[in-house]
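Extended Data, panel c. Modelled sequence:
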Amino acid sequence: MNRPQNRILPRVTGIASVWTWIKWSLVAAMLVAVAIIARLVMVEIETSRLQARYLSELTRDVGFAVEAGASDHVRFPASGPYDERLGYAMIPAFQQRLLARGFVVSKQARDSERMLALADRGLFLPYDEKDQAGLMLFDSTGAPLFASAFPQRVYRDFDAIPRVVVDSLLFIEDRYLLDPSQPNRNPAIDWGRFARAIADQGLHVVNRHQARPGGSTLATQIEKFRHSPDGRTASPPEKLRQIASASVLAYLNGPQTMLARRTIVVRYLNSVPLAARPHIGEITGIGDGLAAWYGRDFNELNRLLAAPTTAENVDQQGVAFREVLSLMIAQRAPSYFLNGGYPALQRLTDSYLRLLAAGGVIAPTLRDAALAAHIERAPPPQPARVQSFISRKAITSARASLLAALGIDDVYQLDQFDLEATSTLDNGVQQAVAERLAKASTREGAQAAGLYGYEMLAPKDDPSHLTYSFTLYERRNGANVLRVQTDSVNEPFDINRGGRINLGSTAKLRTIVTYLQIVSDLHARYGALSKAELARVKLDPMDGLSLWALDYLSRTQDRSLQAMLDAAVERKYSASPDVFYTGGGAQVFSNFEKSDNHRILTLHQAFAHSVNLVFVRLMRDIVHYEMIQTSGPSSSWLDDPEQRRHYLQQFVDGESKVYVKRFYTRYAGKPADDALALMLKDVRKSPPKIATVLRSVAPNESLAWFDAQMRAQLKGTPAATLSDDDLAALYAKYAIDRFNLNDRGYIASVHPLALWTLNYLRAHPDASLGDVEQASRDARFYTYTWLYKTRYHGTQDRRIRRMVELRAYAAISKSWRALGYPFAEVTPSYAAAIGASGDQPDALAKLIGLIANGGDKAPTETITRLDFAKGTPYETRFVRAAAQPQPTLSPEIVGVVHQLLRDVVLTGTGRRLAGGMTLPSGKTLEVYGKTGTGDQRFNVYARGARLIESRKVNRSGTFVFVLGDRFFGVLTATAHEPYAARYDFTSAMAVQLLKSMAPALAPLIERPAAVGPQAEVAAPAAGSAAPS
């Protein structure tokens, strides 16, 4: 019979049994909890609902505002390719530099407290980043001057991307990114890939051969490309920073992220790094990558891939798709895949084409067409050719000013900055002036400008070999504002600021100012002394200026500074040619007009008519004055034995180093025997001379080597028949220890220091010039032992005077630099007064601007505003602070120089503008200034300063001017070798050319003294922008 089975119920008996029941109950509860948590985690992984709620709430108060003045609520990025390329990381350094150069922060971003908190926790700032940026320049009227865009070709929005490109990218990198069933999805993390990446990292600890594929999504890759140091994930914490930053950014506009995810696709394609190529530089984004690596038109490719596939276009689509796909794959190791690893890239592309077709992403027909396509990299691009540097002079000038202001030297780097800058240049007038200068280089243009005539171009002259440069400043609000700076040279070289040009008698302006400063010092020193006190002053006989000052003050009734300065420019000098011992030797100077040669002229007259010899003699007086001021009375350095020895040692040290440098330059870096052969080439083929050179330069070489060298050098000469015994005798006789260095130089007819230098380089082939100079000290001083002998007292005096004279020129250089002279030193010759020291047109213009400004040195403005990072949490605007001119010249000096410059135009060499400049409106502006004709020659003199050769190297005509009460500048016409010898024009041509430019300058001159606001210029269109 069927009986029910007995159920034995558990019986709980005893304390142990109770605890067992409790333990298993807790385990069961924990398992249930784990299951619930796991389910919640799975739901969160699938929906991102909690992340969306938390992160969207976190980012609610994330933002920034731009307010006036400098901000202490802003966090600039420390590094990252994107932040460095756009200049964001460098804004703090730029701020310090610009503040020190007269700028102030006009407005700057204020980040919200929540944004600051995120930054302080190490996250990258969340904001709508720019896919494309670059330098934009505006002129002073607000007109666009220059625009660059990096990258040049970008997708404007998601809809601009062909669907097949989007689908392929997601299949390769992030398949669920655009899943519409997950509206709150966090695009920063793919949990499956992330878990696998962690597992692989753990296995790698045990097995170092275990691969470690990354767990990156497109969102985190963008953070890596743009903001991680060097664009790399260097550590697990850096990966977490990328994930956290991308997560915060995804929820910046709320819990639903589809719009952010579509933006990620656009941003990734526009920012993926694709290595670099010569003449292009760094390549960023698919658009620029297609152009750089395959020569593909970006817009055409997108049109082709967006079109339906047909039998007619499938082959073209196959090629285009293969190119895009290969770049998507190449981003994993772009420098490898797009260079030496290109074949591997093509094999990998084939694999992905099959996978894409198998996954239903592309049709089999497109797969087959792409597999059949053969794509080659485009040939390396050639340097971009600029059609005309002349038309770009304003751009070149403005960018050069920006480079100087920011303290960088790379134009490529500058052009990629997210920066808008306003230049002081007036591009419309600049182009009009450039056109006038270019026309002046044609016969028709020169005739129209009136450049043919007396002291200008002769009827036969061809002006096509002339170059012109022009600079114009405006005095405005206490500053010198650059309005025009151009030249007619179709090269990037800037004549106005580059090089060192002989600008002729414009140097008389610097000289006369220096002279008047000395007279002012003499007035301050002696002006208050009584006649009796003046009579007791003891002066050096060679100090002509101090002697004149004492004589003048002893006789005059009006001891005011103004009266003394007026009298100083009426001092008379001879204009006669003579031999002058200056610049280390005897030199002869001449006047332009021979009729001036035997005249006695005042400085006032000589300045107006540009008479050279008067100013040569004035410079001699200035040099003698500074010799006394810097070195004391001549008796102290000519009669005191210790002082004499001190100056002689200075001379020997300086001159001997000149020789050593010359020989080092000639022989260093050459193989030992080649250097020796180079020396022997200039030695007469005499056995004693050759033997002395060989034994001095290579004293340790064997007799056999010596024998071979001697026979080679003496081949074809009567001494070629010398026997072995004869050569052995020479080897012994001219050994290095048989004669001192000076004697060996005398025997060989070779400078002793040349023998020493070549000997040292043979033993120390890698020695630097500094090493050679230091090692040669004893030899250098020994070479000059003859100079210390008493019978050479006169020679010693000349050397001592030369050293004291150099100290005087150092003082003159300091004085000139204080007035804006652009070089460290003037040429130590009286000829510096007539242009031999060279100058730069721009620096000369600033000097006359100093005069026009009443002696107050005003700061120069070339850039008035810089806007960094507009529309970002780093936005900063710098503007020029109110200028503070520095008093430099006394009003009394300025008044005298002012009158001298007026007389140059009214009665002297600038008289073609004596009636002023008349504008097309009929308005006439007063003009004053200084002319200068530069005639730079290569002269060779025989003993006694007799000229035996003269070759024209450069010829220039310059007019530095003040125009009206606001404008000043300089105009220069130049001819270089070999054409310089064909012309005899003077500065009169520069004066006439300026006169003819009135119509081109009128729009600027007649404009009210204010700068227009910066224009609002649209950013370059994405996908179509190209650098200017």
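Residues 6-10, 1011-1028 have pLDDT under 50 and may be disordered. This feature is highlighted in the accompanying rendering.
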